Amino acid sequence: TKKSVIHPGDQLQIPVGGALPPVVSATSTKVQTVLDFVSAQLGEPYKAVGAGPDAWDCSGLTMRAYASIGISLPHYSASQAKYGEAIDWNVQAIRPGDLVFLATNGTITHVGIAIGPKTWIQSPGTGDVVRSGNIPFQRVVAVRRAPHPPN
Questions:
Q1: Contact, 62 vs 34, CB < 8 A?
Q2: How far apart are CA 112 and CA 100, in angstroms?
């Protein structure tokens, strides 16, 4: 067998005096623009079919956030779930800027934007406001890493 192939379950040993390369967690300028956009909407009211500038539904918020960097998404959460790269959140960490989808009775009905591996910003529903909080992982049905234009 090849010594350079790593298989699931293999254990790696770092030689004495050796070190792992640093983990890079820098957020691209395009993703930062998306995060800045959604952060600026915190506290604004939910409005059905709202796409700003002062009231939002969930997909209107994500649509406009990504429009701020030139990415066109539809104004419908189930349709947005078809864009970008599918992420297995059980294996890969959710990254800032990822779209996180929830479902009701098996149908995608809600989307928010991750601001960290366990937190997001969303426009939850009638009577509520755009807010940040913990991602409800028990309800997550999809995570998509939207395609980002080069910096």
A1: no
A2: 5
pLDDT for position 6: 61
Which helix (H) or strand (E) segment holds residue 60: the answer is helix 58-67
> Could you tell me the two tokens for 33?
């623009």
Tens digits of per-residue pLDDT, 89-98?
999 999 999 9
Residue 58 CB partners (closer than 8 Å, separation 6+): 77, 110, 111, 112, 122, 123, 124
Count of beta carbons in the 10 Å neighbourhood of residue 98: 24
Joined tokens for residue 98: 């990822």
Q: How many other C-beta atoms lie within 10 A of the C-beta of residue 24?
A: 5
Q: What kind and span of H or E run contains 130? A: none
